């Protein structure tokens, strides 16, 4: 595994900045990324529902009882939350796997965009913050599992193919937006190339992309973006 910290400068670029939280899966779809409305956001804004959606994205379709076992919940509670996610368009029944005895559930194809710019102390902001916070918890858990167990449990080829990179730059807001857009474009190309791949030797892999201003540092005044 490669662990790297990079220190470098960036060239000038201009692009407007919009902040979204993205979730993607690798199933075949022509569905565009969905910017969810307030009603759907409130329907998702429950810690267990966020974890259910993340599990279906990471591990693929599952049953209510299977998800209940994963999260230590009752089947009745899990069925209720799955129905709420279905109501708001986040999950759907996987008819190809279902039976008369038990339904299989899958994520609705396509990415999700959650607008994080809402007025402070508003209901919208509270729902958005909860969803983003829970998503971060699930991402951190997967990453920590890899850090703590990867070297001992993974075959060397998997561990050596992985990387942990930290890059520190001084950028304007438009340069940051342009940098993120280019990284997203690279990710999109790989998503399209390997979408729905189920070949022998594959396993779920997660790429975590975070790019953000350091909060306890200050902006140099007088820039074009100011």
UniProtKB/TrEMBL annotation:
<dbReference type="InterPro" id="IPR001845">
    <property type="entry name" value="HTH_ArsR_DNA-bd_dom"/>
</dbReference>
<dbReference type="InterPro" id="IPR011991">
    <property type="entry name" value="ArsR-like_HTH"/>
</dbReference>
<protein>
    <recommendedName>
        <fullName>HTH arsR-type domain-containing protein</fullName>
    </recommendedName>
</protein>
<dbReference type="GO" id="GO:0003700">
    <property type="term" value="F:DNA-binding transcription factor activity"/>
</dbReference>
<dbReference type="InterPro" id="IPR036388">
    <property type="entry name" value="WH-like_DNA-bd_sf"/>
</dbReference>
<dbReference type="InterPro" id="IPR036390">
    <property type="entry name" value="WH_DNA-bd_sf"/>
</dbReference>
<feature type="domain" description="HTH arsR-type">
    <location>
        <begin position="39"/>
        <end position="123"/>
    </location>
</feature>
<dbReference type="Pfam" id="PF12840">
    <property type="entry name" value="HTH_20"/>
</dbReference>
């Amino acid at each position: 595994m490669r662990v790297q910290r990079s220190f470098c400068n960036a060239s000038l670029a201009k692009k407007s900045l919009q902040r979204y939280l993205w979730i993607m899966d690798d199933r075949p779809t022509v569905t565009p990324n969905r910017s969810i409305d307030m009603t759907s956001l409130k329907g998702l804004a429950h810690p267990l529902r966020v974890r259910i959606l993340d599990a279906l994205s990471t591990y693929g379709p599952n049953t209510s009882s299977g998800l209940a076992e994963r999260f230590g919940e009752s089947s009745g509670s899990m069925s209720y939350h799955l129905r709420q996610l279905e109501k708001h368009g986040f999950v759907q029944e996987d008819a190809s796997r279902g039976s008369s005895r038990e339904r299989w559930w899958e994520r609705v194809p396509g990415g999700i965009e959650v607008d994080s710019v809402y007025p402070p102390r508003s209901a919208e902001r509270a729902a958005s913050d909860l969803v983003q916070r829970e998503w971060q918890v699930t991402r951190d858990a997967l990453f920590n599992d890899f850090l703590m167990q990867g070297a001992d449990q993974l075959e060397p080829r998997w561990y050596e193919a992985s990387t942990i990179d930290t890059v520190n730059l001084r950028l304007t807001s438009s340069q940051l937006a342009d940098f993120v857009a280019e990284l997203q474009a690279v990710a999109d190309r790989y998503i399209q190339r390997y979408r729905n791949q189920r070949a022998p030797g594959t396993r779920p892999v997660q790429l975590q992309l975070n790019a953000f201003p350091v909060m306890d540092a200050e902006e140099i005044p007088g820039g074009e973006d100011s």
